[in-house]
Amino acid sequence: MISSDIIRGYNDIIILYLLLEDSSYGYEISKNIRQITNEEYVMKETTLYSAFARLEKNGYIQSFFGEETQGKRRTYYKITQEGLQYYKEKCEEWEVTKEVINKFIKEMG
Amino acid sequence: MISSDIIRGYNDIIILYLLLEDSSYGYEISKNIRQITNEEYVMKETTLYSAFARLEKNGYIQSFFGEETQGKRRTYYKITQEGLQYYKEKCEEWEVTKEVINKFIKEMG
DNA sequence: TGTCGTACTTTATCTGTCGTAGTAATTGTA
DNA sequence: TACAATTACTACGACAGATAAAGTACGACA
Predict the structure, then answer these.
(1) Number of neighbouring beta carbons within 10 Å of residue A18
(2) Radius of gyration of chain A (CA)
(3) Model pLDDT for residues B18-41, shown as the tens digit of each residue
(4) Ranges for the Transcription regulator PadR N-terminal domain (chains A, B) (predicted)?
(5) pLDDT digit string (tens) for A26-46?
(6) Distance (Å) from CA A70 to C1' D4?
């Protein structure tokens, strides 16, 4: 189980990654995360939707309504230029973070 | 700069790592972190001391007073069996976390 | 006398995550 | 036809870890 204190701050990156190729919506993103990680990480619904709100507030994603004529209306999100920039920076930060934390990890029986 | 949301949850591990070899105290641990990471990560004082309190409350470290007869009295900490166990588990969790997050990271120009 | 370095403590605030619950429509199944 | 399950969200409140700001206390040094 991955603790929420560790993934914190990377949920945004996970979401942005999934919007790189094409716009998407909550439920689909949620499923994709589970699939990609083989259920090793399951993002909570509330975490996901509050991340959407935060990302949109910061201008990293933009929402629009889908054209479904049946079923509950979906809110789609697409990544912005700023979002792409933010994603790139966070990826670089991740490389640094990995190396820093690795210095405090020991392989033990 | 490593964001606090990313390192969150690993501050405990950093501290425990530094207590593996020998007991130590706040100021020394703080200096060691800076040195080991070449100033890439500097743990805030309040973060450090609140982590001590949490770790002791959870039984992962034990405090005792140093024998300095001059200067301000130091509070030393040593790792417990439970702390060692916790450290090991977190190291294993780290390996999983790394792989999970790596799936959402892209190398980009 | 004043500043720097060492070694902490207290208090209060912020943010992201998460538990709980509820709404609303569609699809499966018995 | 009834009921459960799945899809697709929204609202509210609580919690924990990180942090800013400020203060205490001691020694050394100039």
Answers:
(1) 20
(2) 16
(3) 999 999 999 999 999 999 999 999
(4) 15-88
(5) 999 999 999 999 999 999 999
(6) 21
